[in-house]
Structure formats: C-alpha cells, structure tokens
What does this fold into?
Amino acid sequence: MPSLKDLKARITSVKSTRKITSAMKMVAAAKLRRAQTRAEAARPYAEAMQRMLAELACNMADRDGAPKLLAGNGKDRTHLIVSVTSDRGLAGGFNSNIGRATRRLIQRLQGEGKTVRLLPVGRKGADFLQREFRGDIVDRIPGSAGKDVAFAAVQELADRITAMVERDEVDVVTLVFNRFNNVMSQTPTELQLVPLALPSNDNEKGDSDASYEFEPDEETILARLLPRNLAIQLYRAMLESAAGEQGARMTAMDSATRNAGKAIDRLTQTYNRTRQANITKELIEIISGAEAV
Amino acid sequence: MPIDVEIVSPEKRLLSRAVEMVVMPGSEGDLAAMQDHAPTIVLLRGGVVSLYDTQNVTGPADERFFVAGGFAEITGSRCTILADSATPVAELSRAEGETRLRDAETAYDDADKSDVPALEPLLERIQSARAQIETAEAN
It folds into this structure.
C-alpha cells in the first residue's frame, strides 16, 4: 500500500499534467481556427486554377509533346513520395497514420520492382521513415512547426520537385498527406501530382464550352500554369495537414485531460481510503491500549 | 454594364466586386476587360491592374493593384485574376522591389546562359521587380 505522502505527490503530479494538457488543448483550438481560416482563404485561387487547367488540358491532351508535369515522361520506374507530417508530436495518431500509409505505399511499389525515393516534409515523418528507408530519402524538408504555412517555402519545394521531374530523375510524384475531414477525423490520402490526375469535368463542360482564346498561346500558358499548379496542390495539402494537426492535437489533448481527471479521482479515492484506514488503525491501537490498562 | 472582378493570390482573395472595366498587364501588352469580352485566358506580367467603377473610363482609375505576374481568366461576365502576389498600389514598397530586383539579377547572372527556355522566367522576374520599383516611384 503506497504511503499517504506518495499518493499526495502523485495526485499533485497528475494535476499538473492535466493543467498542461488542457492548456495544449486550448492552444490547439485557437491554432485550428486560424489554420481553417487560411485553408478557406486559399480555396478561390486553387479552384480558379483548376478550372483554367482543365480548360487547357482538354485542349492539349490529344497532342504530342505535352509537358512532363502534365503527362509524365511515359515511364513508371522511379516514384517520388512526398509525405507531409507535423514537426511536433502529441497529436494522437496523426503522424503515425501517415507513416503507416507511406510505408504501405513504399512496400507496394518496391514489391512491383520500382525504385522509390522519399521527400518527407515535417520532422516526425522524416524520423519515422529514416529508421526503415534511410537510403531512399532525398532530403528532409522542415515543416511549418505549428506556425502558418508560408507559400514561399512551399513554392521552393515545388520548384525542386519540378526540376527533378524535368531532369527525369523521377517519373511519378505522389503526395501523402492528412486530409482534413473535421476536428475529430483526418484521413491519410494519396494524391498523384505527376502525371497530373485531372478531375473529370464532364458536368462543368456545359458552360465552359465557349472555347477560350489564349494569350500568348496554349503551350506557353500551360508551361507556366503547371509548376504553379503543383505548388498550389502542395500548399493546399500542407494547409489541410496543418489544420488536421491542430484538430488531432485538440482531440488527443482533450481525451488526455479527461483521462487525467479520471486518474485524479481514482487516486483521491485511494488517498482517502488510506487515510481512513490509518485513522481506524490508530483508534484501534488507542482503544486496545486503554482496555489493557 | 458591370463585370465581376476577382483578384486572388494563393494566400487569400483580395478583392471581389463588380466594376465597369478592368485593365490588366498581359504578357503581350495591357488589355482591358469589360462585359461581354470574349472568353480568354491570359498570362500576366508584373504590372498594375486598374479598376474603373464608372462609365468614365478615360479618367484616373478608381482602384489600383500591383501584381507580380500571374494569370487571368476572362469570360463575358467575370474576370478572375490569379496573381502571384498582389498589393494595393498605395502600399507598394520600393525597397522591397529593389530587393527583388537584386535577387532576380543575381539569379540571372548565376544562370546558365545557354539554356534559353530557363532564362525566360528569370527575365520575367527582373521585369516584374523593375515594374514594382517604377510603380512605387510614380506613386
């Protein structure tokens, strides 16, 4: 049976843990709201870009010599996997889900005899992948460290990926990230960036049927639009991942706070019982002592 | 006869309202969009987007934004400007333009001059930075 002093110390320690987890929950909630606002603010650009791209791509698709970013280089040997995780832990299964999804993808591709190269974004994912696939990692890209995702940094990463594709270092680029469903749930999602998987826009076709004029010309615009689109897709994924991280942390910290509360109740009960038992014991000692006299 | 104009950067939507006419810096020269413009997709260079609220489109512009390049999608009733970055002209910083120009020129000097297609974006960066300095100065 633990002594009263030990129990007291444990109660105090669990109480301060609860204080920390509940503070982290509060911080995550505030950051979540911010991240969500930013994700929403980025939507109009991405949507307009998608519209223009769909318009251009269906004009270009049946022609030869389509840019590599759109149609790939015709090969399917080397896969680049960009997996987006957070820099910090304590967010429940947020990072390990991505880790697991990435590993599954790698094993599937390696099983098919393909070469896999990795570009982990965020410290947690990089640490995870380093254990198993050290040789395949091209570089580790720092995440946003809980701050706002900066478009300039994303653009840099996108330029790098574009350059790798242009130099034929990789044939297919896939992004693995947490899609933000709601505060409680994030789904690890694979998104193929190169060759570009265009959303089928059959239903939209109706009003965009009025054929566009292009200035200067389709090739030039497409050549400029594609790298931009890559950056936007990455940016969007990172914004979603950032919002998802805060959501996951909020949920994880909420249940941690609740568990700490339960632990405190249990410990307090044990403490009171022990105290009661001690008093009873003392009383018995006194009474039996008095009887002996 | 208004046209709906939207200026969006990757990070946010800067403006969305109806105007009489919008003039934008196309890569091949400035162009204006009014209602019932033919559907067009345009590549933009660094320069000023001017909005005219009234029929009087020969006077000074009612609102002006500096865009550092981007794309525009024009249809008969709508004009969406996808800017790499957009700033109201009044808030434009000359110093920032000079930093951009220096960076762009260094990047150009370091670049492989035989790779002509790769040089084009670098030249555009220089042009866009110069346009920013000029616009900020004229302000």
